[in-house]
Design goal:
Layout (H helix, E strand, L loop, with lengths): L2 E7 L3 E2 L5 E2 L3 H19 L4 E10 L8 E10 L3
Antiparallel strand pairs: 1-2, 1-3, 1-4, 4-5
Length: 78
Amino acid sequence: MPQYYFNISDGQTVLDHEGQDMIDLVAARTEAMAAAGQMLSEHRPRWDGTTWHMWVTDEAGGRGKTLLKLVFAATDNS
């Protein structure tokens, strides 16, 4: 079963050194979207346009091929 590594950057970078076994990239994409939603709701991004990234790689520590990337930015235009 392939190993996928979920790395985060939101002003600080947290690299995944353990990874998760997933059946395929579709499962990894589903997990990335669910985890991103949970993280964003719990840790609320700054509303200053700072981007929040999650990128999934095929090697530990953010190395290897980037298989998918999620990017969010929040701004308050009021």
